[in-house]
Amino acid sequence: MTALTLSTSAAPGLRADAIVIGVAKGAAFESDDLVVAPGAEAVDQAYDGRLAGVLETLGATGAESEVTKLPAPAGFKAPLVVAVGLGAEPEDGAPYEGEALRRAAGAAARALAGSGKAAFALPLADPADTGAIAEGVLLGAYAFDTYKANGAQAKKGAKAKNGKAPLAEAALLGAKPRDAAHKAALARATAVAEELNRARDLVNTPANDLYPEAFAALAQTAAKEHGLKVQVLDEKALTKGGYGGILGVGGGSAAAPRLVKLSYTHPKAEKHLALVGKGITYDSGGISLKPAGHNETMKCDMSGAAAVFAAVVAAARLGLKVNVTGWLALAENMPSGSAVRPGDVLRMYSGKTVEVLNTDAEGRLVLADALWAASGEKPDAIIDVATLTGAMVLALGNRTFGVMANDEAFRTALHEAAEEVGEPAWPMPLPEHLRKGMDSPVADIANMGERMGGGLVAGLFLREFVGEGITWAHLDIAGPAFNESGPFGYTPKGGTGSAVRTLVRVAELAASGDLG
Ligand code: BES
Ligand code: MN
Ligand code: ZN
Q1: How many CB atoms lie within 10 A of CB 226?
Q2: Strand partners, 20
Q3: DSSP assignment of 87-101, as one string?
Q4: Pick the catalytic residue: 290, 347, 352, 399?
C-alpha cells in the first residue's frame, strides 16, 4: 500500500514526481469559473496567479474527480502538477467537505499509478481533513493484481508487466507531522483503509480460490495476528448444532459451509455489538439457477462477510472500547444432487421451519442462522450486512445501500453514520402487510414472498430470526458492493469494500456511548 507521511514543507522545494492540487467550480453567483482551492497558493504564485486560466485553457472545469495534468512551473523540484476536481466550491468560504477531499484524493492517487512519490497540496483545514485525504489516497491507489502476470501470486519467471504499480508514496502537505490530532487521524485512516482494501481483495478473489473453508482460514490467521478470538463451525459442527439454513444452502457444493465467529473484546467495554455478514462465496442460484448474464459477478456475494471481517479487525487495530463480535455465514450456493430443492423444508437453527420456494433466495437462509446465533449472546445491537436482493439495486441504484431496522432511532443512527463517513445509504421501511406473502402451507415461513418490494420482503424475513427485544438493522449492499462500471473517486472497479467504514463508525459510536 501507498506509504503516507505528513509534511509542512512548501511545495516548490519538495522532491516528488508530482504535486496534487485541488480545483473547483467557483461558487460566485452565476459563475462557471474554475477556482484553485486553498493549498495550491505556491503553485498559483509560480504561475503568476494565472493557474486557474491555464487550467481552463487545458479544459479543466473543476468537476468532481476530473484530473488535469500540466508541467510544474519553473523553480519546482517536482516535474508535474496534477489538478484534481473537487466539484462545487463551498459557499461563503466554507471549508471543503471531507467526502469531496476523499474522492479527489482518490481520483488523483489512481491517476498517479506507476509514480513513486506525490505531494498532496489539497485544502486541508483540520485533522478530519487529514484523515479524509489519507483514506482517499489509500483507497484510490488500490489495485487488485493478484492474478496478473506481475501480481503477488505470479508464477516464477513470469516477466510481462500488466498494469502499473500503485502510487508508492504520498506526502500530505499542511498536516503537522508532530501534531497528535493529525497523527491520530492518519493512524485511523490507515487502519480503516488497509482493512477495507483487504475486504476488496476478498471480494475480488474468485470463488475457485475463496470458498468457505479458505475464508475461515483467513479469519483464523487474522485472529492470531490481532489477538481476536475465533471459532469456526465446520459441516460436522453445523450438523450437530442444527444450523439447517447454512447447511441447506451449502449442501449443493463440493466446498462445505462454515460459520465463523470472530470476537474482539475490550476489558473496559460497556457495549456489545454483533455484526453478521452474508458470505455466499459464489451464488449460482442453486437449483433455481441464475440465467447467463446474472452470475458472472456472483463471487461478490460474500461482500457482507468481507465487510464484517474488515470491521472487526479494524475495531481491534483501533483498540475501540467496545466488544464486537463478527459472524461470517459462509456457504457456496450450487446446484447438484445434494442441493436443496425448491419445495424442500429446512429446520433452521432457531427451530423455525422454512419452505424453500426459490433456492436463489439463499442469503436470508444463511443469515437467519447467523442472526439467531448472534442473538444467543444478547448483544446490545445486531447489524447484518448482505448483498441480499436485486430489488434493492432496482430501488436505490448501484451506489446506495438500503438500511432497514426494527427500531427507527437505530435505523436513523446507521443512516447518519453512513453519511458521516461518505457512504451513500437510505432508510427503507419494513411494511407489515408484506409479511403474509411469505406464509407457507407447510412451514412456519417461506423464503420468498411478493415480488414487489423484494428488498423489504427479505428484510421482513430476517427480522423473524432476531432474538426478542434485540435492536437490529439490516444493510442491503447489493448495489454498491461491486462496481461493474469504471472507477470513480476512490472507488475502483470490482469489489468496493462497501459498509466497512459505516460499521467502523458505528463501533466507534458504540465505544463512546453515542449510539443510543
Ligand atoms: N445475491 C443475490 C442478490 C444480488 C443481486 C446481489 C444482484 C448482487 C447483485 C441474491 O441471493 C438473490 O439471488 N436474490 C434474489 C431473491 C429472489 C429469488 C427472491 C433476487 O434478488 O432476485
Ligand atoms: Mn441468490
Ligand atoms: Zn445471493
Answers
A1: 16
A2: 82, 120
A3: EEPPGGGPPPPHHHH
A4: 290
Nearest protein CA to atom 3 of ligand 1, as residue: 389
Q: Which residue has the cell 441480499?
A: 388
Kindly report, residue by residue over 190-225, the tens digit of the pLDDT. 999 999 999 999 999 999 999 999 999 999 999 999
Residue 159 has pLDDT above 50, yes or no: no
For the question of residue 364 being annotated catalytic, the response is: yes
Counting ligand 1 atoms within 8 A of each CB, the residue from 388, 398, 476, 498 with the most, and so the one to mutate, is 388
Give the domain ranges of the chain: 3-174, 193-374+386-445+480-512
User: What is the C-alpha to C-alpha distance for residues 434 and 430, in angstroms, rounded to an integer?
Assistant: 8
* Residue 288 alpha carbon, nearest atom of ligand 1: 18
pLDDT tens readout for residues 394-420 = 999 999 999 999 999 999 999 999 999
Give, for 113, the enclosing helix (H) or strand (E).
Answer: none
Question: Does pLDDT of 488 surpass 60?
Answer: yes
> Are 108 and 120 in contact, with CB atoms under 8 Å apart?
yes
CB neighbour list of residue 219: distance below 8 Å, 6 or more residues apart: 230, 232, 260, 262, 309, 328
**What number of CA atoms fall less than 13 Å from residue 291's CA on the CB side?**
1
Amino acid (one-letter) located at 80: L
How far, in Å, CA of 69 to CA of 66, rounded? 10
* 307 Cα–ligand 1 center, Å: 18
CATH class of 3-174: alpha beta
364, 411, 501, 505: the catalytic one is 364
> What is the average per-residue pLDDT within 12-23?
96
What pLDDT score was predicted for residue 155?
Answer: 54
Q: Which of 402, 398, 499 is nearest to 455 (CA)?
A: 402
Question: Does the predicted TM-score (pTM) go above 0.70?
Answer: yes
Q: Is the pLDDT of residue 162 over 80?
A: no
> Under CATH, which architecture does the 193-374+386-445+480-512 domain have?
3-Layer(aba) Sandwich (3.40)
Asked if domains 3-174 and 193-374+386-445+480-512 share a fold, the reply is no
Beta strand ranges found along 436-487 (DSSP E):
445-446, 471-476, 482-483
